[in-house]
Every structure is written in structure tokens, then in C-alpha cells.
Specification:
The chain is an alpha/beta fold. The protein is 35% helix and 24% strand. Helix 1 runs antiparallel to helix 4 (213-248).
Amino acid sequence: MRVLLRPRWLVGTVIAVLLVVLFVNLGFWQLRRLDEKRDRNADIEERSAQPVAPVAELVDADTGYGEVGDLVYRRGSAEGRYDAEGEVRIRSRSLDGRPGVWVVTPLRLDDGTALAVNRGFVPLSTDVPAPPGGEVEVTGLLFATQERQGIGPQDPTGGRLDELSRLDLDRLQQQYGGDLYPVWLQLTGSDPPVEEGDLPLLLPEPEQDEGPHLSYAVQWFLFATIGAVGWPFVLRRAAAEERRRAARAGDPQVPAGDDRPLEAAR
């Protein structure tokens, strides 16, 4: 078909092919994200179901950050005293649609090591209550240090910071005197207990839903199908219109018989 050789249709075909390829890849990307979410949910279910164990029995304080992957979502416990002087806030957090901060306080253990405890969420413009005094026992879920992703905010490398952009244990260690464990604990309970409704508010445990990835994948594959089927149909209609115009103009290169069925179908 000569219409396909015209620049605008050639360009359109190239764009259509590229879009179909893009949509297919986006669909498979969503399926990969779904697999990752299912693997994460399986890890949460398996690890959080294990018995609570003292953090000191699960990991050494001098263990590298990259060696704690199997401990994420495990339930740990520790006994010690909160070190209010080492407390920091993690900014740009939210809970139930409210903006605020996480309150992270080191819990100093008897052997001099310390565990960063995420005591929970405090809304913006709200005073952060002091941690409980005296000996406390905490339990909660263990997590790995949070690392900067892409072009996310970066904290200054020097000085004492009251707020951090993420729960970066390496940055917290730089300004804290004691040896921090390479995991942090999201508080779920303590003795003495945290009263319901008291600040900081305890954070919810990780959700185990699969998210919208499957529906997004179906949408992308549907878009790819529409492009793969629809663009050839557009080209066919354009070619048919070209033949009709050529026949009406008496183009000798177009046999008259080529147009008759089209005219009859009108």
C-alpha cells in the first residue's frame, strides 16, 4: 500500500510499535512487582510468626548492615533504658492521612550497646513526649536501615541532627556514642505498657495486601492489544480511502475494479 510509504504514516507506525512495546513491558513490570509483593508478604507471614527473641541473641552489634536481611520482620525484644539525649525525629511521615514525624530513641542495654527504637508517630506541631524513665522492656518488629532511593533527600554528613530524612542507622551512629545494632525495632509493646492513644502513636504492622499490580498489568496489556489491533485497522482504512481518491481522479495505476467493492459497500 502506497499510503504506508508516506512520512506521516511511517512515523505513526513507528510510534504505534514503540507504544505497544512500551505497554507490554509495563505490563510485565507490574507482574514482577506483584511477584515481589507476594514474596514480601510470605516473608512477613513466616518471620513474624516466629517466637519473640532477644535482639542480642539474633544479631551481634558489629554485624554489617547488609547481613541482616533474614531478620527483617522478625519479632525481637530488648531490655534497657531509653537514652533521650540520642533521640531523633524522622520527618515527612504520615499516619491515617496526617503528616508528622517518627520518634526514634536509642535504648541502651546493660552491655553498653544500643538499639534504635521507633517509638511511633507524632503529628506535626505537637510536642514530642519524653520517653519513659527507668528500666523498660520493649518488643516489636525488626527492620533494616533505610537507604536513600534515587533522588531522595540527603542528610548533611556532619554535625548533630535532631531530624533525619530516613531511619538511616549509619547516619544515626555518626552522632551517637554507643554501638548501635544494625537493625531498628518498630515498637509494638513495652513494659511498662504504652497506653492506647498516648503519643507517640504505635505504628501499624506492615500490610500484606497484593496492591493494584495485577489490575495495572491487565490495563497495560489491554492498551497494548488496542494498539496492536487498532493501528492496522486505521492503516487499512487510510489505504482504502487512498484507493477511492485515486479511482475518482482516474489514476491509471489504480485498477477501476479495486474501488468497486468499496463503493458498493458504502
